[in-house]
Write a structure and sequence with these properties.
Blueprint lengths: L5 E3 L2 E3 L3 E3 L8 H10 L3 E7 L12 E3 L5 E3 L12 H9 L4 E5 L4 H12 L5 E5 L10 H4 L2 H14 L4 E4 L7 H11 L3 E4 L3 E3 L2 E2 L4 E2 L6 E4 L4 H14 L4 E4 L5 H10 L3 E4 L1 H6 L2 H16 L5 H4 L19
Parallel strand pairs: 3-4, 3-16, 4-7, 7-8, 8-9, 9-10, 10-15, 15-16
Antiparallel strand pairs: 1-2, 5-6, 6-14, 11-14, 12-13
Helix pairs in contact: 1-2, 3-5, 5-6, 6-7, 7-8
């Protein structure tokens, strides 16, 4: 099989693999590096209205093959400075999705408009960071707030808007449906899972912030479950995130219902070369599994619709 192109939110991508926000997105040069290595596109760091230093060290705890726990605190240079980095990446032809965060719908709309003006192809709204006070999942855990934020941004821009939702919720599907009602072009699922590491010698949390977000292979079952549930309820496409480091990981997400996937922690551990490995291996693996295309795999693990079929209940 030749290169596996995909369509997402009216945009053609050279493969399904996108760089996840928060990894490798500090500079235009790093964004260029991810694209040159094989990513179809890149999601920028989450950018706010003002510069933000983030939390003091330690901010990361590695769990090796399981993944990592982090509480960075959304460090970023602010929307006034970051467009310089976007310009560097755009000059190299990198397809960009701009990630933004704010504390309310008005703030998201203002930032979204500023980010859209930099020339990014789409926006991703960070409604899901699990450890930033007054931001992220504290905004994105209420379906009404999610709908209001998405609707405000959609009205403020002319490019597709993706809503990145949190798994740290009683009902992620309600959040996805709220994003859909607000006019989102896609839902990104998931962000990190809230977690804690404790130093038994010091008798205190390992991370300076205490709580952090767990990412990597350990959260793949959570990400797959959320994508699976969203696919059963949403009409808009889903971007799957969480624990993807191999071609089969990505295909699992496609089978669960993801139209594209984002790769993050694998990049932190193995570098951007992981994108080339994934892109080169995808076509042959799809062939071996009997799929004529990536699109043929999307949602294929779900039972076919039938008027006589009894819905399969979600596990409780």
């Amino acid at each position: 099989m030749a290169a596996v192109e995909v369509e997402l939110a009216g945009i053609r991508w050279r493969n399904p693999f996108l760089l996840a926000s928060g990894i490798w997105g500090e500079s235009g040069e790093s964004l260029k590096g991810a694209y040159a290595a094989g990513a179809a596109g890149v999601v920028t760091k989450s950018i706010g209205a003002e510069p933000r230093l983030g939390y003091p060290n330690p901010t990361v705890e590695s769990y090796g093959a399981w993944g990592m726990l982090n509480a960075m605190g959304l460090p970023n240079p602010g929307i006034g400075e970051y467009p310089r980095e976007i310009a560097v990446a755009r000059a190299a032809g990198v397809p960009l999705i701009g990630s933004v965060f704010a504390g309310d719908a008005e703030g998201f709309a203002e930032l979204g408009a500023q980010m859209a003006a930099t020339g990014v192809l789409a926006l991703e709204l960070n409604l899901s960071c699990p450890h930033a006070k007054g931001l992220g999942s504290e905004v994105g855990s209420d379906p009404e707030e999610v709908e209001a934020v998405v609707r405000a941004v959609v009205r403020a821009v002319r490019i597709p808007v993706f809503a990145k939702i949190t798994p740290n919720s009683v009902d992620p599907v309600a959040l996805g449906l709220a994003a859909e009602r607000g006019g989102a072009a896609a839902v990104t699922a998931i962000n990190t899972v809230r977690g804690l590491a404790v130093d038994v010698q010091l008798r205190r949390p390992v991370l300076a912030n205490g709580l952090g977000g767990l990412s990597g292979p350990a959260v793949k079952p959570v990400g797959l479950a959320v994508v699976w549930q969203l696919y059963r309820s949403l009409r808009i496409p889903i971007v799957g995130v969480g624990g993807i480091s191999t071609v089969d990981d990505a295909i699992e997400y496609a089978l669960a219902g993801a139209r594209a996937v984002e790769v993050g922690t694998a990049v932190a551990f193995d570098g951007v070369r992981v994108f080339g490995t994934l892109a080169r291996g995808l076509g042959g693996r799809l062939d071996a599994l009997g799929f004529a295309s990536w699109e043929a795999a999307v949602g294929a693990a779900h039972p076919p619709p039938s008027a006589d079929a009894t819905p399969v209940p979600d596990a409780e």
